[in-house]
Amino acid sequence: xxxxxxxxxxxxxxxxxxxxxxxxxxxxxxxxxxxxxxxxxxxxxxxxxxxxxxxxxxxxxxxxxxxxxxxxxxxxxxxxxxxxxxxxxxxxxxxxxxxxxxxxxxxxxxxxxxxxxxxxxxxxxxxxxxxxxxxxxxxxxxxxxxxxxxxxxxxxxxxxxxxxxxxxxxxxxxxxxxxxxxxxxxxxxxxxxxxxxxxxxxxxxxxxxxxxxxxxxxxxxxxxxxxxxxxxxxxxxxxxxxxxxxxxxxxxxxxxxxxxxxxxxxxxxxxxxxxxxxxxxxxxxxxxxxxxxxxxxxxxxxxxxxxxxxxxxxxxxxxxxxxxxxxxxxxxxxxxxxxxxxxxxxxxxxxxxxxxxxxxxxxxxxxxxxxxxxxxxxxxxxxxxxxxxxxxxxxxxxxx
Length: 400
Known about the structure:
This protein is an alpha+beta fold.
């Protein structure tokens, strides 16, 4: 039988050796030791990091619970009174709420009374949030507004300052995305996002108008979806049609702190929408022909073009699965004109044609990780720097 490794308990630094029914603890390298040092010598994360529930729990507790990460889109709550329940990558049920003051807030999705889940599905135009269990009522600001029968039959209370309202979550809206810091102690959001905003200072992201939305359920661990995205090495082999106008050899690599990926300064699509949509106004000639496709660690994928921004929010849905929520935003109100709808559709449709190929590749890789004896990567020193750096960030965040 092949040798397999599996994380046990809640400690990603302790591995177990499994051979048939016998389980024997053994001394092995921690994840950070496997990915640290020179790229050419690194073994990479163990395959069990991509399917073991205990590693997912470690990621929830030590990675996603301690750093800013995206949980949704501003358009999920477009109007005051709109509420969108989400399950964060940290495994915490949250509510994204747009108040009557137009402010977007995020709360933990439970009632202060006895912990009942407040909202199970998106809601529109609500004036308050009512617990389905005992009808405790909260304002959209999170304040506890009413407790029925608080002092006995028929003795309701509309003044409950002694009881806390909904538990608020530190949040920030950027480029139409909602980010959270569940720890409330991560660095300021501006500091977190600085590597990307400095790099993309020539893009006026305030002009973005989110338009086309898609979702893909991926039969693979969320890290595989990220690693596949920042890996240009596979493009000519998995995406021959994409490689015709986004050639692998035209790319440069981006290893900028928590911003990882690649760019192409000779991007040249050939469909009917090429050059037909409004572009970011401050771009010079070389920048208009450049795209950059990056991961903003941990779970956000962004591709900047001269005329749109493609956003992929990668949501872990289990140790072996994830969901990609895609939003494509165009530049300014002019781009949203009805007469340009066909061009916007053409631009948007460039993505699913090759993303289907990526989903298939990730699915096969997931299956291989779970069923083969593969346990040590041999990174390509030229191509695999971004993937190696991503795995380093994961391992260090998880304390291994």
